[in-house]
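Team,

Forwarding the record for the chain on the shared tracking sheet. I've put the sequence and predicted structure together so nobody has to dig through attachments.
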Amino acid sequence: MAPEFSKTGQHLDKMWADAEGNPEVSGFIGRSAQFISPSVHSLTIVTISYWRSLEDLHTFAHSPVHRAAWDWWAATKKQLPHIGLMHETFESEPGKWENLYEGFTKVGMGEIRRPLEGKKETVPALVEASGRFRTMGGRLGREW
């Protein structure tokens, strides 16, 4: 990997551990990581994270562990032209989105697991597309 990439990874690992440590408080729902190789000379790692609300994401962005990573990046980025960071933020109202996976690798929300009521054990968040979930209208609670 590129020089200092391991340091970048250490900061990311600390941030994810912090978010995952107490999801009821942090509002962290889960994350999905994908590796993309746009050319033989580069590797892009995309991590998509899901949060209960923009307020929860904002709180995370200003937490001590994220602030430490942010300060390290600001002080180091000129020496790391081979490493880039980006983020995109989208807000969606409950019931105004869906994800469908049929004969497809589970990525994005499809990788997220949810805790069982009152237990530490987690299960896939996906449900079978049958009954009311058979159509987009049914999944989104609409009469189409």
